Amino acid sequence: MAKGRIRAFFNTRVGLAVLIAIAIVVTAGSFLVGEYLTATVAALLFGLGIPVWMGQKSIKWLAVVGVAILAVSPAISTAFEVPVVLAPTAAASSSNYILQNATVSPYFSGPGTNFTWTVRVDFSRIPSGNESWNMTLYLSTCPGATGRSDPNCSSGYPFTSYTQSVVNQTGNRPITFSEAISSSNIWDWQMSLFYTNNSGRNGTYVFLVGDPTYNGIAGPVVANGWGGVYGLIIGAIYSDYLIVGIVFFIGLLIYAVFKQRRMRREQAASRAAPSSGTAGAESPPAGPGASSAPLASGGTARPAATQELACPNCGAVVYPKETFCWKCGTSLSAPSNAATGRSNPPS
User: Fold this and answer.
1) Cβ 309 vs Cβ 340: under 8 Å
2) Which domain holds residue 174?
3) Are residues 116 and 189 in the same domain?
4) Which pairing describes strands 185-197 and 217-222: parallel, antiparallel, or unpaired?
5) Residue 134 half-sphere exposure, CB side, CA atoms within 13 Å?
């Protein structure tokens, strides 16, 4: 009974709106947890599986749910991603601690701001027999890139490098780079110290330890306020949702195919039902006062339990012994005569 009431509610206008809202919010939240993989699962479950279980089996309506998810969920996900983008990263060091506590300041500001990168270099940690040569700052929109070509990014990304000579430096000293950035973007950076062997002149690069995937360090974020950051990332998030939409509509297509096949089987069974059990038996001629009800092979009227009725709310095919409509959840406890407008055959 509770299941029937729930289904009945979700077949109202308010219930349908609630179903769509739940699918949108859960998909957006799932994207924040695990990006497009978890978002795809959420969209299939809450945008397709649960609505069908609740009785909403219209292909057009399910397609509307899918469109709503793809239109609204990325916008919600983007709003929650902005604070993540604006959270400053921790200071970075190299694995051998020659480079220590590298940072950029400010982390977030508008175009034209002069940003400062600072790193402490412990020259005493450089192995003996080597001399330092230069420090380089790499700035790009490709995480971890140290050149204009990187396997993790498509070619053509913005890239700039700045180099300072640090020949014959000693002790633990701060090195700074100060550069103005005029274009809005979410930047990434890396640093290296290059030193050479005095005898063989073999060169060695020391890099900061960045993120575990690309070895890049996030920042700075250059944009005009919160809205500017939102505009920078929303396009990428909509692109990530493409896989969600593709999988959802493939799932809807598969459901539509199986639904069509089921309807054809039910129609075929319905057409065959009146002739069931009458093969080889002649129908008696109709005489005055004779009943027009179909006869079974034994010459008696077909039991009422096999007759089809109609749900008073949605018109779906139901049977006399059912208490709730399988499609919309409406109670069928009222007499079938009043619900369907059909007359039961005389007993």
Assistant:
1) yes
2) 99-209
3) yes
4) antiparallel
5) 8
